[in-house]
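Supplementary Methods, section 5.1.

A reviewer requested that the exact input to the structure prediction be made available. We therefore reproduce it here, unchanged from the version used in the analyses.
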Amino acid sequence: IKQDPALSSLVVHDSIIADFQFDTWHLATMEAESKCFAFIFPLASGHINPSLPLARALVRMGHEVHYLSFEQMRESIQDTGASFHAATEYERDLYSGREPDAAGALGSLQKEYGLEKDSWWIAYQKVKDVQLELQLPGAMNFLQEFKPSVVIYCPVANREAPIAADLLGIPSVSLLTFAGPGARLAAQQAMLKASGLTLTEADQQVGQFEPRGAAMERLSVKYGLHLDADLSRSFGFMDTIKSSSFSIVTTSEKLQDPMPSELEQRYSLDGCRFVYVGPLLDEAGSVRAGVHKQSGTVSATAEMHGEAVIQAAKQARLLGRPIVLVSMGTVITGDLKGLGWAARPVGPDGRPRGVTGRELCQAAWGGVFDAFGSASTVAEDPVPLILMAVGPQPEPLGSLEVPANALCIPSLPQVELLKIGVDVFLTHGGQNSLMEALAHDTPLVVCPGFGDQTVNASKAVDLGVGLKVDRPDPDAGNELPEISAYRRQVCQSLLKVLEGHSSFKAAAEFHAEDLRSAGGVLRAVEMLLAVSDTASTNKMSDVSTRLPACAAGGA
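The structure derived from this sequence is encoded token-by-token as follows.
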């Protein structure tokens, strides 16, 4: 496998990568021997969706696939043919009496330890090793029960997965839904900035949190784990991929985010390998994990509306009407504490500031209506068709008046609509949405909310595929003027992109070819099968002699 230019110093020792020729393999002719694969993924649609086509392909080839995830993801997981297992049942030590969320049980732990005034990111840094200690027994029980050949996992949210796999001698592969390892650094830099702290100040706060130190000590004694206590040293580095055979990255080599040489060197010294396969696109009609709340679920694809929306888009395309697709993502429209619908960023003084997820979304949606809304109900009129995903909240549009040419539903079949053809896509700038849009030659207006979305917004501008409108950050009491200005900016940016459609589309087409040549699902599945061939058939036979007994917490 050709290595990324930014990792040119990385020496590849793994014959799976060094000798692999993906273009000579075909899924239809791969070995018939059935194997078992374990997928461990969080309560986060953007992290689990790229894994679904991999699971679907493995199941169709006759392999056994087991997911450890959350009830809100059950429908999309079972649609692939894989078996669903609830993390809340296996990892009871963490989830008993606590509410699951995208970061584990962060919201509950914040209350438990009195961290409500901390920013989302600072609170997570304080409790992540507390969570790890509570998750590991259940994760190990899950793997011991099904004895997979390979563990595939999210390296951002599921720290327990590679550690459990490593302790049990099972090969693991991470699925990185960021734009390469450099994107992790950029995302953490953005979250640190949002906290209002310097890295030194953050390091001091995290280091002084005694439950973290105590958990790290117990993990060391029980499992022999030596976790990095220095936040400054681990900042931007994913220690969760060190033991992986390699990391599948859902972008191309050319479109990965840059990273400083010292971070590149650290990954190289740890033997980390990255395989860039581009977006992992599922087949038409598949059930994607979509809008959800931490405490419940909305139909994964809003199937009762999905087909009607697709037909409306096809009809608009036949009539020459522009199509405007709108989605602010699943996190900001959900109820994740610190990042969701009701959340307002926390300043360095521990007080809320800026705008909530609701205010951000409604201002962006208002800008769409201002730019393209029409009172016409005649399908043949050349007014744009607005297709808007508004999430799971009750009455999410608030006081906004929906124009006659807009269809607003909780969730949209995004990939299918992009395939039909979209003239401009207003997106939050999540990695999946960015890659899916570029793969389908779609011009963008990016309205980022947090984390890597802000980096992706700038990338869209730099690549010439669209414009961005940054999240407003008003002082307390000055929200309304800033929200109004933001809405006007969204409107103006949408009109500019549609007016200059040909140039933005040409840039998107250029990058689409690069993504298509990266290999996608076929290449990723072939790599997973190659790893499974190296797995020893008796790798689980003697684990009881070299590991301490797992505590209760499994199913």
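Residues 162 and 441 are 36 Å apart (CA to CA). These observations are discussed further in the main text.
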